Amino acid sequence: TWKWVVGPMFLYLCERLVRFWRSQQKVVITKVVIHPFKTIELQMMKKGFKMEVGQYIFVKCPAVSKLEWHPFTLTSAPEEDYFSIHIRIVGDWTEGLFNACGCDKQEFQDAWKLPKIAVDGPFGTASEDVFSYETVMLVGAGIGVTPFASVLKSVWYKYCHDATNLKLKKIYFYWLCRDTHAFEWFADLLQSLEAQMQERNNADFLSYNIYLTGWDETQATHFVVHHEEEKDVITGLKQKTLYGRPNWENEFKTIAGKHPGSRIGVFLCGPEGLADTLNKQSISNSEADPRGVHFIFNKENF
Known about the structure:
One of its GO terms (biological process) is defense response. This is NADPH oxidase 2. Its cofactor is FAD. Residues 19-129 form the FAD-binding FR-type domain. With 302 residues, the chain is an alpha/beta fold. α4 links the parallel β8 and β9. It has two domains: 25-123, Elongation Factor Tu (Ef-tu), domain 3 (Beta Barrel), CATH 2.40.30; 128-299, 3-Layer(aba) Sandwich (Rossmann fold), CATH 3.40.50.80. The radius of gyration is 21 Å and the shape is globular. The longest helix is centred in the N-terminal third of the chain and has 22 residues, at 2-23. It contains seven helices and twelve strands. The chain has helices spanning 2-23, 92-100, 146-162, 184-199, 217-225, 248-258, 272-284, and strands spanning 27-35, 39-46, 56-60, 70-73, 83-88, 118-123, 135-141, 170-177, 206-212, 242-243, 263-270, 294-301.
């Protein structure tokens, strides 16, 4: 038995030592941004830190807890000179971090007063393969939208600097959420991308659909009254918010018809139930002919 145990235990100890060494490296918080609905953005720098789109890190704040590590998706792009995460204040640990960063105070906080942060990572996800396809479908459900902030930012940087070398030519983005107000920071990112793409006369590069899955009678009346306005009353985007859930069969058939003979990457960050639905649609809408359209499904669940 010991022969079978020694090998895995040795590898495990090596992995723990590497993680401990990485967690001891100095991390500098360069900026703390407070977003609506008790969401904060931490912008950080760390020597030798390299990331790809959609990756995540583990974060520890000794001022809050000396033992707890929490995973957060990176919302910055590799092209930026910092890395960032967005944290929604929903529990004891996040509340402690919120207070430790001085976000509960009205006055401006000096950088030296910010707490020390330990970071382990980054770690890879399926989203890293986005740039391997000419056409992709990105599907985010609720907080699952965060990996695609990194993807969309990186796409924009690549498009601005040298779009001729960018293999990715078309993005279909779907965001399903019960309440968009909790993610106003992401709606702001979409507004910026929408405006910049229109300035460069390439508004068709990004097609996005936002589905609101929860609303009450008062909200529904407000939506109807303001439906004819140029911009959406919820997000401020030109693309109007849709209500309910998408008909995935129709969406897949429409995209397959627009891109015959293509390999289309389908990327999901969302619940397991939605993953099963998209996986089945990817299989049923892929053709048996190798020269036909094929949907390649990739997922990460929470």
